Amino acid sequence: MKIMTKYLVSVSGITLAALATSPAYAAGTDAGSSITNTVSVGYQVGGVDQSDIAAADTFTVDRAVNVIVAELGNATTTVSPGQDDAVTTFDVTNETNGYVDIALAVSQLVGGTAAHGGTDSFDVSNVRIYEDDGDGSFDAGDTLVTFLDEMDNGETRRVFILADVALGLATGSVADVELTGTAREGNAGTTGGAVGAAITATTGGDTAGVDTVFADSDGVFDGIAFDDDDYTVQAAALSALKGSTLLAVNYPIAGATEFYNIPGATIEYCIAVSNASGGADATSVAISDTIPGTTTFVTSSIVIGGTAVIDDNGTPANTADDVLTSCDNTAGSAGGSFSAGTVSATIGTVTAGTTEIVTFRATID
Amino acid sequence: MKYFIAFLAILAPASAVLGNQVALDSEVFVERSAEQADGTITVTLEEPERVVPGDNLVFVLTYENTGAEPAENFVVTNPIPDAVVFAEAVDGGAVYSVDDGTTFGLLTELHITNESGVERAAQAADVTHIRWTLTEPIAAGATGQLRFHGVVR
């Protein structure tokens, strides 16, 4: 500790103004700012006012490098198999007391526990990073980036990771993505150009000028921060069952009370499409069914909608042993088409955990 | 890094018949806490060479009566630098201002009025000035220190 005695004389009545003012930012006083402490003393000797005296001490604020990457929403991003441009959102904050660039990179977990509890089981592809244009959500105005240019003291910017999801993934498949932000040298707020040089902490003793120290919030002092988010697949698991019922209508033998599969008898076919619970809703569901060669389609007999009774044989999770017990199409409506021996009908949306039916009639040749 | 700031007398003070006889020194140190291997925490004071926001500072005001006569009614006023948040005084007897030095009082007696006219009790972070008034004269040759804590914004 060095002691410097200072005789400082000022004219009585004149007080010293602060020699340097440093505007405070979110992440602290800017590196390079001077902090001056000034003290003044008034006193008397022998009852007589003496000149005020003052002393000051000034030091320079050094640079504490700290960046923060935080996944937004703390929830997984639900995706469909085959979905392109699935978006996850992060906020990147410069907690350094001065400008820095922040280099961005995405890595993917291989196995292990993902950000929101699941087990990482696949990787997304075509991973890109976009910087938000200020509206907070991903849209056409956002910019494909590899780094955030000239992040100001305390500034936060929103970043989106976009990725594509492969087809054929089952419900519950999880892909973890990790966004890493690395502090790089800034250019005093002048944007443009490439990402700044790597930041090196001052070593080998303090200097009187602006030193650089890493002050990472995560406790690993390297100017690097990261956070994870994950994608969870919600697939639709569709299964179809088909049954047939012999009808009394237009039975070829008038007055019959028992009905048999004889030529001229009418058969009603029922196709039941089920979407397993816990998955995604299936949209634009369409069925096509080729009628048997020895039957004749009954014109305009296609009915879409209604209810079905399905016996799951005591194994709700296994659709392979399910049996269609009965169908009721009274709630349905006419639709579909018949062409070249094939019945076609569009059911539309089959909500997860529900069953939709299509019925049509044919006569036995 | 200390800036030596000297102020020259522009006018000879008419009343200061004995001349200037008090030496004053203002110093700032950074307070560093380090946990030792045995679990104890040691606090060291360092020269403010490496200072970043959030660091704890200790301001030390040292005075010495270099004259031959006692100095009386000794009043020390220290405005808190803008980039420093006042934390607490080490030496007792201080009064504070939260209005840029217009009024001084005990912190518990001061209030802050916000823009909508709501009044609340002043807190350490509101302090703009700290002042000590020494009740006893400083004898010739006597020295003393006054200290307070602050945090870099």
Walkthrough of the structure:
With 365 residues, chain A is mostly beta strands. Chain A has 3 domains: 1-61, no CATH class; 65-233, Immunoglobulin-like, CATH 2.60.40; 238-364, Immunoglobulin-like. Chain A has strands at 34-45, 48-49, 53-60, 63-65, 67-71, 77-79, 86-94, 100-108, 125-131, 143-144, 147-151, 156-164, 174-185, 212-214, 224-233, 238-247, 266-275, 282-290, 295-297, 303-304, 307-311, 323-328, 333-334, 337-339, 342-350, 355-364. In chain A, strands 16, 17, 19, 20, 23 and 26 form a 6-stranded antiparallel beta sheet that branches. In chain A, strands 5-7-12-9-10 form a 5-stranded antiparallel beta sheet, with no helix packed on it. In chain A, strands 6-15-13-8-11 form a 5-stranded mixed beta sheet, with no helix packed on it. The radius of gyration of chain A is 37 Å and the shape is rod-shaped. Chain B is mostly beta strands. Chain B has a single domain (22-152), classed as Immunoglobulin-like (Sandwich). Chain B contains no helices and 10 strands. Chain B has strands at 22-35, 41-46, 56-65, 71-79, 84-89, 94-97, 111-113, 119-121, 129-134, 143-152. Chain B has a 5-stranded antiparallel beta sheet with strand order 2-1-3-10-5, with no helix packed on it. Chain B is flat. Residues 1-18 of chain B have low confidence and may be disordered. Classes of the chains: A mainly beta (365), B mainly beta (153). Strand 1 of chain A pairs antiparallel with strand 4 of chain B, so a sheet runs across the interface.
Q: Quick one: CATH class of chain B?
A: Mainly Beta
- Number of helical segments with 4 or more residues of chain B: 0
| Mean of residue pLDDT values of chain B | 82
Q: Tell me the β content of chain A.
A: over 45%
Indicate how many domains the architecture of chain A comprises.
Answer: 3
CATH structural architecture of chain B: Sandwich
Q: Find the structural class of chain B using helix and strand composition.
A: mainly beta
Which percent bin holds the helix content of chain B? under 10%
What's the structural domain tally of chain B?
1
**General form of chain B:** flat
- What kind of sheet is the major sheet of chain B? 5 strands, antiparallel
- Which CATH first-tier class of the largest domain in chain A would you pick? Mainly Beta
Number of strands of chain A: 26
CATH-defined topology of the largest domain in chain A: Immunoglobulin-like
The quaternary structure here is heterodimer
Query: What structural category arises from helix and sheet content of chain A?
Result: mainly beta
Strand percentage of chain B: over 45%
Q: Looking at the structure, what is the overall shape of chain A?
A: rod-shaped
CATH fold description of chain B: Immunoglobulin-like
